[in-house]
Amino acid sequence: MAVTGLTGSRPAAARPSKQAPLVSWSEPRIAWETTGTTTNPTLITDAWGHAHLFFLSTDESDNQSALYHTEVDNPDAATVDVMTGINEYRLTADPYGRIHALALAPGNQMVYTAVDAIEAGIAGAWSAGERLGAAAPGIDISADAAGLLHVCYPTDHSVAYQRSDDGGRTWTDPVSVADMVDPAGVATFVRCVGDSTGAVHVTWAEAHPPNYYPPDGIYYTLSMDGVNWAPSESMAGQHYTMPTLLADPSGLVHLLWQGDVAVGGRYYRQRAAGANGRWGPTETVSPAGKGGMSGDAFLASDSRGTLHVGMNVDGIFWANRSTAWTTPVELSASLRDLPNNSGSIERATLAIANGNEIYVAFEFDFKRIYLLSGQSDAPESIRTPISNPNAPTMIAPEALTAPTALPPAQSEAVMTPTPTVPPWGLDPEALTGGDAGVRGNLAASLGTVLALIVVGGTIWSRRRPKGRSGIANASSPGNDRSAP
Q: Residue 313 contacts by C-beta under 8 Å, 6 or more apart in sequence?
């Protein structure tokens, strides 16, 4: 594989950061609590401007993870499980008012499904799961401003890409994006977005089995047609991983990544959209020595174009950027004295509703999902979906005058063929809250663990929630936060 850039280069020194603008943050409240385990929250904003919270939860007597949904900005919304039998998922919202999900089902099979956003909490409203093929952990799906869907994922020793031009009804055949720099390496944490010019951007981290540690670095490539790809470019060297991409409406593409526990830090670059864009210099979001690998960072822009990030840096932090990154603000400080057997306060996710309402959610002790909100100084922006002849008829929120009755439970068994792709891509550090001392043993048993997770899974069925949702203020009042 051809590679350009400075392989192994260390991020540049931090630019002077300014104090974050005044944001009034609520105290974290419990959005979900279980006696089993819960993790992987994801916030997403639909084309109506409404925010949704999804997360995985497993009952203590059950070995199948269920994907739950609730409406963030509707206090009367129920928390309902909409899919079962998955161990990884990614979400995107298109401009037509639909939410699209890509999940890893039994046998490491990618399964695609979608729903009108207003019916996301109704299990029977989701489309029948469609298998797109085999993949390793690290999958991604995104919708661009034109409504095209982009899917990217790791295969044996390469990265693959597929696209849908009709809202997920049909998909292109898989195309190889890039091979690994080292033929023995594997791709992890693959991410892709389409920008305002139609260009497709793909980034990924590389690692080596059997330990998958330290990560070998971050790579990036671009295509104008989804078939022909530019030579891969090295964005960061060894010990850097977990990239995040965002293409904003103004024509900028944003890349954020993180250091592992040995080096820490959160780093950022941006470029203009299209084939002629060039990456700007590396900026430091959070300094070296802070944090390890503890879940994706999530980027979103408000109505003024200010970039916001929710991230894990030895706690849950938020920062934003107009011309330079502000000092990160801790959002989980009031929870530090609560009982926490695992020590985990991780998996931050962020979304912005109506142009200026910032929502952040995160996992606590694998038992709770916390949610909080803040108001940016950007103006409110009321959104409506654009017309799409390929999409099914949508239901406007105003049309629902009473809670929608849930349909009878339905189930579609998913076949479990022999995996053609080994279960690569999960760094053991991400499973242990950054504890480097058990990396080797966990990595050695990684395949066995994932196999146990996915065996016998059934997807797209609805059950009664076995945890509870509700509101509970954190123990410490006030909005004073500390910076890392």
A: 264, 266, 286, 290, 291, 328, 484
